[in-house]
Amino acid sequence: MASPALAAALAAAAAEGPNGSDAGEWGSGGGANASGTDWVPPPGQYSAGAVAGLAAVVGFLIVFTVVGNVLVVIAVLTSRALRAPQNLFLVSLASADILVATLVMPFSLANELMAYWYFGQVWCGVYLALDVLFCTSSIVHLCAISLDRYWSVTQAVEYNLKRTPRRVKATIVAVWLISAVISFPPLVSFYRRPDGAAYPQCGLNDETWYILSSCIGSFFAPCLIMGLVYARIYRVAKLRTRTLSEKRGPAGPDGASPTTENGLGKAAGENGHCAPPRTEVEPDESSAAERRRRRGALRRGGRRREGAEGDTGSADGPGPGLAAEQGARTASRSPGPGGRLSRASSRSVEFFLSRRRRARSSVCRRKVAQAREKRFTFVLAVVMGVFVLCWFPFFFSYSLYGICREACQLPEPLFKFFFWIGYCNSSLNPVIYTVFNQDFRRSFKHILFRRRRRGFRQ
After folding, report:
1. I need a surface site. Which of 50, 154, 316, 431 has the fewest CB within 10 A?
2. 339 inside domain
3. At residue 288, what are phi and psi to the nearest 5 degrees?
4. Could you report the per-residue pLDDT of 231-273, keeping only the tens digit for each?
5. 401 CA to centre of own chain
6. Is 9 inside a domain boundary?
7. Is residue 408 situated within a structural domain?
8. Listed residue (149, 153, 159, 157) closest to 238, CA to CA
């Protein structure tokens, strides 16, 4: 968006006056006034330089918001690391931010710079409803995400089985329906022009009941729910950490490291990646042909019994805490009275070892998933905190005005600043994902630089 073009369009619109038949309907501000003289636009509240500067800043904000959130959508839909069902919430949230940038912010900017509403009565109602809808949907999305985080922490196994893409999509539809119900009143309660105003205006219902109900439904009630849910998540996480520290004991007599609650011990690092479990399989067990060769040697009289037994130990010796496993292997491989190795015993030990390895692998995967859930919960907590910081000043001052009117009214420039800070929140989520989440950062680099390299090759 080039700021000179936008400024020129605004100047042309101001010279033309309100469009269509709505101009006369909106009072003396449209077409010709009551005395029959030509319509004169209101005196500009900003200089030409200020108009160009504001248009440039907001234009950059719009472009940055659209590009950043489009990257989020592409990353979630194309990256294997981000294809978890719960990330569909982020796609829907990014879509709401894109709609704010394309359907709300340009008209808010024009209304601010021109000092009157140029776009007609019908679009005024639609614009106000969309404004409230997208803001409300953002916070209701965050509320649904906080509940998703809570259930994934407190009911990890059961909830993860239930959290399918279909269920997540149904929840997203419910979020948009709830937001639409909350934002519907502006369609029927917006006001056209305050008494005594010379120019058409577009604003929300100024009655106290609407101001307070919209602030509570669109902001304060969801914020309260999010705060309570995340406080509960923090308590559960703190309790689990305390329980885990109590379960950890000193190293055992065989030097075994303390184990975690899922028996993995130190296999999982802080980055959520599991160290591969030690595979206690001897070199002679790696080949079925080798096992058959040894059994044949044992049948011929056990002449190589001692050598076979010498091969049963691993190259590095038994790992900590695996003495019982090694004992079972040695006993199973010791030939019976007739110099024969029990085939049933060998198979049972092999089955036991394979089951142990599968259990360790399953525990490792679960540990990695839990670490990823923990990082995701932290990132979303940052997103929610930033959202509240951006929108709280506006909703607090707006509700304060609804209670005590002029006695509590803020200076108009400060109120408008709070209003635009709320809009800025739509551009911040991609930045938060980039800073705090390695999967998003890697995916953004892959999307941007891979396509750029393709362009250079062409």
Report:
1. 316
2. no
3. -65, -35
4. 998 888 888 878 877 776 554 444 444 444 333 334 444 444 4
5. 33
6. yes
7. no
8. 153
Distances (CA, A) of 161 to 105, 150, 155, 232, 394: 40, 15, 10, 22, 40
Residue 302 lies in a domain: no
**pTM for this entry:** 0.68
* Per-residue model confidence as pLDDT tens digits over 113-136: 988 888 888 888 889 889 989 999
Q: How far apart are CA 403 and CA 395, in angstroms?
A: 12
| 321 CB burial (10 A radius; 0-12, 13-18, 19+) | middle
**CATH code, domain with 38:** 1.20.1070.10
Q: Give dist(CA 139, CA 220) in Å, integer.
A: 10
Residues spanned by the domain of 119 = 3-244
Q: Which tokens sit at 399?
A: 């509700």
Residue 343 token pair: 């085939």
How many helices (H) and strands (E) are present in the chain, helices listed first? 18, 0
Residues, the chain: 458
Tokens in use for 138? 């953002």
Give the span between the Cα atoms of 252 and 254, in whole angstroms. Answer: 5
| Number of domain units in the chain | 1
